[in-house]
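To whoever is on call:

I kicked off a structure prediction for a single chain this morning and the downstream step that reads the tokens threw a length-mismatch warning. I double-checked the sequence; it's 127 residues and nothing unusual in it as far as I can see. Pasting both halves so you can look.
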Amino acid sequence: MQKVLEDHNSKIDPRAGDLEGLKDFLVEKRGFLLRLLENPNLLEHELFTELLWAVFHLVEELSHRARIDELPDSDYAHLAGDMKRAYGLLVREWLAHMEHLKNEYPYLFSLAVRTNPFDPQARPEVG
């Protein structure tokens, strides 16, 4: 799956979703993100740290724009790149987390598979 992710080209269009909602959500979580960055145990994991920096950068980019719905195309392209970076790192970390759960905590893995955020048909009920 990691090879598939490496070759996958995510196409992100910031105008297609609720960019203002994403901005509000991430700005609200800024304090939490800062606390994660301050945690020395988490900083030992380079990929997770890279993910945190990518998300934090996206928060900063979004929070500095007063009118997110009236940006020039160049800004939307820049935000798409920032979003693509954060999303790609997030997916890689999610996959690593799933592998860890499968190997170490199969009962937690079972629920995680049933609630897979990439499967729109996912349900927590055992089928």
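Update from on-call: the warning came from a stale cache, not from the record. Cleared it. Sanity check on the structure: The CA atoms of residues 16 and 80 lie 11 Å apart.
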